[in-house]
Amino acid sequence: MDLLEIEQQIVSCRKCPRLVAWREQVARQKRRAYQDWEYWGKPVPGFGDPAARVLVVGLAPGAHGSNRTGRMFTGDASGDFLYAALHRAGFANQPVSTHRGDGLALRDIFITAVGRCAPPGNKPTPDEIRTCLPYLQQEMALLGRVQVVVALGHIAFDCLLRIGLFRNSNFEIRNLRFAHGVVYPLHSGLPLLVASYHPSRQNTQTGRLTETDFDAVWTRVRGLLGGAG
User: Fold this and answer.
1) What burial class does residue 14 get, using C-beta atoms within 10 Å of its C-beta: 0-12 exposed, 13-18 middle, 19+ buried?
2) Averaged pLDDT for residues 36-62
């Protein structure tokens, strides 16, 4: 299996009836500002550099962001904040991402999520996350150069540790607590795990996550990678 095959599996997935109904309802009804758009309305696959040393993991697509554009963190305020930071850090060739054909290219980084469908209220259930996590595990298995995993938000962090990516390793998950900007060295042979607040509008507009704080995360990631890719 390769990344293209996983992408095709993700896009055709209909395993969670509640999420299927919601993502398709949003795609039909649309937001007034996007009435001229043909919404994606399907699960959203990960994307980026297949030789990436950095894996970025978010929560799930936004109803009128990725569920509209079909690309992770594209078309909403979270994506605006993220891609501007990635561009400043040299991981993206441009600071904005508006649609799948806008010319965005990622360097040394792959972006994905624990959930692939836009959930009602931005809250997937634990069962929905468990159903979706094998896709993330398959991506991780194919991204063989990953040295650093960046968890955007508390939920992504917990999913990676407790029910997902590192669950079947020999590393014993004890009392690791989410804290912005902290680097967690895990078991030998596993990537480093970096925690960051999610670049949601709630976090950025309240000042919980500032541009300076977010840039510091990506500067730290650069430092962890060391030499050239």
Assistant:
1) exposed
2) 97
